[in-house]
Automatic annotation (TrEMBL), chains A, B:
Residue ranges annotated for the MmgE/PrpD N-terminal domain, each copy included: 19-256
Listed name of the protein: MmgE/PrpD family protein
InterPro entries (UniProt xref): MmgE/PrpD_sf, MmgE/PrpD_sf_1, MmgE/PrpD_sf_2, MmgE_PrpD, MmgE_PrpD_C, MmgE_PrpD_N
Taxonomy of the source species: Bacteria, Pseudomonadati, Pseudomonadota, Gammaproteobacteria, Pseudomonadales
Transmembrane segments: none
Residue intervals of the MmgE/PrpD C-terminal domain: 278-424
Length: 457, 457
């Protein structure tokens, strides 16, 4: 079968699962561009960075406590923590810490956080059955490819309806990636996707609560279990994705099948991945930068503000118009909160999105003055902010592309610095430098369990 | 709060999750009718019966093999097997064995198999934290109530779209039931439902393959984990069911909210439960009885058949028009196969729906002659079969209500006999009599782990 044709034929579309499985089974790192492999390292490094922040979050503590009573042998480690768990549970918990603050990576268009379900599943498996960094990179790139192409095929309707796309698509990414490591043949890879399809879940309603992390953790855990089951002969349906009652048609009103297969092996979704400078929903990045611009103007005085108006694409209002927030987690998807803390503190780190910050009197006071409006002409990723003083003085700022966007990506050094900062935030005391060094050298590492040995306590 | 009002008010519908949680937390076995409690015992007995058959199925063997590498401490047992697993894994595996042949119970209208996700989760928890049979019955009835009311609220669109409703609703039933045992308060019960909502999955596309069992096993496992997490403070959204992007609206185009709350505490869904006499999709019951009637006629000769036409409700064709089958599992949802074996062997036990039976020459020959047509006037649950000999002789039979229907239920003795037969089929060698006796006495048993001690090897 020829992979990477510019247009996929009818056969590819009527047997999409088999076609994709063949691609996953046969694709090789040797044939992938250097820049793509480097992007994989950036994604993985960014994933460890956010896991170091999330590893001591309350949701993580409660999930660790719950699952520690039922975990199997101590096969695998947790980033920034001392506990050991069985491989499936470790995959769950590291996916949780990676994504709990939504500070991880973002695939533009779908808003999938691609790394959280895939990388933790691979590193957990790597502590149980050692393999090389090159194999990890290969499997990671392929898992993200499937995960994000599925997202492309069902966006925007899938998320809009209420599916938490990181979880629903992530389970397939984790299954594909770990299936690649397990050396599944084409038929078993289709089964792995089928076993993943039986476990795909996650609702947007859970965002802003700890239950979100249950969905994301399961994407990693269940993707890995789907592949392990397939490896042991647990058979799935022949067309889990494209079937009449398969994943695509059930979770999308108008799935775009060609998006799954066109330019497979030549256009890589991971190369479009983006990394966040701020610990918020990505739609808030331009809001934050516009507010920081206003706050950093000479003689700015937040106490004089009578109103703040944020205008942007409808997606901004849909995802982040949240005037009332009670927890740090909700604050991460609140445009009102983001504007208030940036204007008050000229900062936008995890400290400004903590449970404590949410209830500060000055934040409560300013948050109430902020409105979000839709500008039909605005592009996704842009924002315009107008602050009006009580004397009617108007301050405004426009951001067309925020830092972290595809057009304005974080540099390698930015991501390293993010990891250093987030280790401080998460208080594990882990030394960042050996991890940074090891991830940049991932393609030379013989046994990926070395990296978890550096990341755990 | 008043429970059991004839019509629920607006408040109940706008905060359905809280209203249901309050009901689950406050409802007591003392206030439930005797007949309902007896029906719970019948359901549980029938669930053990089918688990004794499924415990040695190939899907079960492969799942046991996969999960045994990652299970925690040996806290809980498997029906008909010798292995011990952690509580979560045992819940998964016993749900699989209960449902793997689709020979378990059926809630009319939704076609949910209510017991498989709920009872195994409770018995697994009961081996870890002992509680009484009365508490188990109470929690079981409540779990099934929630599970089936959710099914009512989203039927028929949910299943028709492709959701495997036993799995998608079962996870909530398991969460509610085990949350009741854990003594969750109202707020934590809402969280348990939220943690379940993040894990609700299962596709109709997987039916006929082993991947179906992955979904059903997860319903039990993840429902239990959802409750355990809530008990440890893992917070969920406030409106996981009725929220804008909550379970009901995401998985149904027109959810019927009143169906969730009306007559709560007075109309009980479990009292409508039905039990199968044949190991097939329930839509096949009337097909089987009509074919058996034809086959048992004097001088019947299957070798003379030139065609068989089955007519029934559109649901029959939708679920079971499957002329080509390759496995016993597919045969269970194939009207063609069911007709062929009944006409050839005058029998319809698990032996007639095995992988081996599927490939017998005579079965292949006759299956090809069977057609399924829709009769717009036919009721769900009815079937008309016409067999025509090569000499144009016509044989026909009509079944309006098959055995096992609500109108023609299996007796207590029928269910006992089913359990005895299925222990023989599953070859565990377990003695059925102490189990039958213990389940009828469940409301007098102090520690439900006694029952698993009788059911395991």
């Amino acid at each position: 079968m020829k992979i990477g044709t510019e247009r996929a034929g009818n056969e590819e579309q009527s047997h999409t699962s088999r076609y994709l499985a063949q691609f996953l089974v046969s694709a090789r790192l040797d044939e992938m561009p250097e820049a793509l492999i480097h992007e994989a390292k950036r994604s993985i490094l960014n994933g460890f960075a956010t896991a170091f922040a999330g590893c001591s979050d309350a949701a993580m503590e409660r999930l660790v406590k719950t699952l520690s009573g039922f975990s199997g042998r101590p096969q695998a480690s947790l980033t920034g923590r001392k506990e050991r768990f069985d491989v499936l549970t470790a995959a769950f918990l590291n996916a949780v810490s990676t994504n709990v603050f939504d500070f991880d990576d973002t695939h533009p268009g779908t808003i999938i956080h691609p790394t959280a379900p895939v990388s933790p599943a691979l590193f957990a498996l790597g502590e149980h059955r050692p393999f090389s960094g090159r194999r990890l990179l290969e499997a990671f790139i392929l898992g993200v490819e499937l995960e994000c192409r599925l997202g492309n095929a069902i966006s925007p309707g899938h998320y809009k309806r209420g599916w938490h796309i990181t979880s629903t698509c992530g389970v397939f990414g984790a299954a594909a990636a770990t299936g690649k490591i397990l050396g599944l043949d084409k038929e078993r890879m289709v089964w792995a996707l089928g076993n993943a399809s039986a476990q795909s879940s996650g609702l947007v309603e859970t965002l802003g609560s700890m239950a979100k992390s249950v969905g994301v953790g399961n994407a990693a855990r269940n993707g890995l279990s789907a592949a392990l089951m397939a490896g042991n002969g647990v058979e799935g349906p022949g067309r889990p994705l494209e079937g009449e009652r398969g994943f695509l048609k059930v979770t999308s009103d108008s799935p775009n099948l060609p998006a799954l297969v066109e330019n497979l092996g030549s256009n890589w979704e991971l190369s479009r991945n983006t990394y966040k400078p701020y610990p918020c929903g990505v739609v808030l990045n331009p809001v934050i930068e516009a507010c920081l611009e206003i706050a950093n103007a000479p003689d700015f005085d937040a106490s004089r503000i009578q109103s703040v108006t944020i205008s942007g694409h409808s997606l901004l209002r849909e995802r982040a118009d949240r005037p009332t927030v009670e927890t740090g987690r909700e604050a991460q998807v609140s445009a009102q909160h983001a504007a208030a803390v940036c204007l008050l503190y000229k900062a936008s780190s995890l400290n400004e999105f903590s449970d404590e910050a949410v209830n500060r009197k000055d934040v409560l006071w300013l948050r109430k003055k902020v409105k979000v409006v839709v500008d039909d002409a605005a592009m996704v990723g842009a924002a315009h902010v107008i602050a009006v003083y009580t004397d009617d003085t108007v301050l405004e700022a426009t951001v067309k592309h925020a830092r972290g966007d595809a057009e304005y990506p974080l540099s390698d050094r930015d991501i390293e610095e993010k990891l250093r900062d987030l280790i401080v935030y998460g208080r594990s005391g882990v030394d960042p430098e050996p991890i940074i060094d090891a991830i940049w050298r991932l393609d030379q590492i013989k046994d990926v369990s070395e990296i978890m040995a550096l990341a755990r306590l």
